[in-house]
Specification:
By secondary structure, the chain is mainly alpha-helical. It has a domain at 4-101: Multidrug-efflux Transporter Regulator, Chain: A, Domain 2. Helices cover 71% and strands 3% of the residues. It has 9 helices and 2 strands, in the order αααββαααααα. The chain has helices at residues 4-8, 13-20, 24-32, 50-64, 69-77, 85-95, 106-112, 117-152, 157-195; strands spanning 40-42, 45-47. The chain has a two-stranded antiparallel sheet. α4 packs parallel to α6 and α7 (106-112) runs antiparallel to α8. The relative contact order is 0.07. Residues 1-7 and 98-102 have low confidence and may be disordered.
C-alpha cells in the first residue's frame, strides 16, 4: 500500500534513518544545529526528501574524515540553502580523494568530456602545480609552527601524523571554498564586462 510519503518521494523519519543509517536522535540534533533542514510538514507529520538524505550523507562523510562538529558546521554554512542534492553530491565527491581509494585522471576525464588533449593537460598541470604549492606551504607551517607547539606540549610524532591526516579534509574543504568564491567573483566580473 502506497503512503502519501511514497507518492511524493518523501520519507518518514523511520524511513530516513533506515536509508541513511543515522539515528532519529542524531537527525533531530543535526536539524537543531542547522546541518540539515527541518522536515517538510504535512499536517502533524514531518517528511524528508532527497535534500535531507544528501545533507545527512555529507555530514556522515565529514565525520568519517575527522571533522569536528564545529568544522562540519563551518563547512555546511558555505553550502547555500538552495543547493540541490546534486550540488551536495559534488561536495561529497570532492572529499573522496582524501581516502585515496581511487585515482583521479583529470586530463583523461576532461578529454572524455570533449576537451582537447592540450587543454586537458594544461588544466591537470594547474591542479598539480597549485597542489604542490599548497602542500609545500602547509608543510612549512607544520614544521615551523605546529610541530614545535606539539613537541612542547609532549605530543608524539604519531600524534602529529594523525593531525596531518585530519588536516587533509580541512585543506580540501578550504580549497574548494576558496575556488568556488574565486570562480563566482570571476563570473560576476565577466558578466559585468559583458553588460557594458
Amino acid at each position: 500500500m502506497e503512503t502519501e510519503s511514497d507518492e511524493a518521494g518523501l520519507l518518514t523519519l523511520e524511513e530516513l534513518t533506515e536509508r541513511t543509517g543515522v539515528s532519529a536522535r542524531n537527525v533531530r540534533f543535526y536539524t537543531s544545529r542547522g546541518l540539515v533542514p527541518s522536515p517538510i510538514r504535512r499536517g502533524r507529520s514531518g517528511y524528508y526528501g532527497p535534500d535531507h538524505v544528501a545533507r545527512l550523507e555529507l555530514v556522515r562523510e565529514l565525520q568519517g574524515h575527522g571533522f569536528t562538529l564545529s568544522a562540519i558546521e563551518r563547512y555546511v554554512e558555505q553550502i547555500p540553502a538552495s543547493a540541490t542534492p546534486s550540488d551536495i553530491a559534488r561536495h561529497l565527491s570532492l572529499l573522496a580523494p582524501v581516502t585515496a581509494d581511487r585515482d583521479v585522471d583529470v586530463s583523461g576525464d576532461l578529454s572524455g568530456m570533449g576537451i582537447s588533449p592540450e587543454a586537458a593537460e594544461a588544466v591537470a598541470e594547474v591542479y598539480a602545480e597549485h597542489g604542490r604549492q599548497v602542500a609545500q606551504e602547509l608543510s612549512e607551517i607544520v614544521r615551523t609552527m605546529v610541530w614545535p607547539q606539539f613537541r612542547e606540549a609532549g605530543y608524539t610524532a604519531e600524534q602529529l601524523r594523525e593531525f596531518i591526516h585530519r588536516l587533509k579534509p580541512l585543506t580540501i574543504a578550504g580549497l574548494v571554498t576558496a575556488y568556488e568564491q574565486a570562480i563566482d567573483e570571476s563570473q560576476a566580473s565577466y558578466d559585468g564586462r559583458r553588460a557594458r
